[in-house]
C-alpha cells in the first residue's frame, strides 16, 4: 500500500454515456480511501470525485452548506466537505455535463494536501470507480472505456 507522497501519478481514463428518464438520480464516480497507517482497518479520509451528477443525487458530505468552487486541471468542481461515519469526506462534483475523464487523480489528492492539510504520509488503500443509480424508471448506462494505473515516484 503506497503512501500518498510516494505516488507520482494515478492516471485513469473513463468514457461513459447515459440515456435516462427525468426522474433519474445517479452519479459517475471515483472513490479514494485513505488510511493514516498501513495497518488501519477503517478509512481515515474518503476522497470522492463525481464526474457526472444526474438529478438530485447527493453525496454524504453534501450537508446543504455552500460548496467551495475549485479548479483542478482546468475543470471546475464544487467541493463538499463533510463526514462519512467518523472519516472526513471530500467530494468534488463537476459543475458541467461530462461523458469522459482522462486525468490524474493525484491532482485531487495534491489539492487536499495543500488546501486541507491531508498528510502525504497517509496511505492510499483503495481506488474505486463506477456508476451508482439511486432512482430511475428508465435508463441505460454504458461505460465504453476504463483504465487506471499507478506510478510511484
UniProtKB/TrEMBL annotation:
Keywords carried by this UniProt record: Carbohydrate metabolism, Glycosidase, Hydrolase, Polysaccharide degradation
Taxonomic placement: Eukaryota, Sar, Stramenopiles, Oomycota, Peronosporomycetes
UniProt source species: Peronospora belbahrii
Signal peptide, first to last residue: none
GO molecular function: cellulase activity
Recorded family membership: Belongs to the glycosyl hydrolase 12 (cellulase H) family.
Gene Ontology biological process terms from the UniProt entry: polysaccharide catabolic process
The name this protein goes by in its record: Uncharacterized protein
Amino acid at each position: 500500500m503506497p503512501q500518498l507522497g510516494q505516488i507520482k501519478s494515478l492516471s485513469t481514463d473513463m468514457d461513459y454515456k447515459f440515456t435516462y428518464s427525468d426522474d433519474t438520480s445517479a452519479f459517475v464516480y471515483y472513490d479514494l480511501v485513505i488510511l493514516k497507517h498501513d495497518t488501519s482497518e477503517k478509512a481515515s479520509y474518503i476522497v470522492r470525485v463525481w464526474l457526472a451528477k444526474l438529478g438530485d443525487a447527493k453525496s454524504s458530505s453534501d450537508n446543504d452548506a455552500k460548496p467551495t468552487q475549485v479548479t483542478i486541471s482546468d475543470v471546475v468542481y464544487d467541493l463538499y466537505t463533510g463526514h462519512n461515519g467518523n472519516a472526513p469526506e471530500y467530494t468534488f462534483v463537476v459543475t458541467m455535463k461530462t461523458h469522459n475523464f482522462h486525468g490524474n487523480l493525484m491532482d485531487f489528492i495534491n489539492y487536499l494536501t495543500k488546501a486541507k492539510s491531508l498528510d502525504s504520509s497517509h496511505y492510499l488503500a483503495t481506488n474505486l470507480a463506477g456508476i451508482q443509480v439511486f432512482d430511475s424508471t428508465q435508463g441505460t448506462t454504458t461505460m465504453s472505456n476504463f483504465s487506471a494505473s499507478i506510478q510511484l515516484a
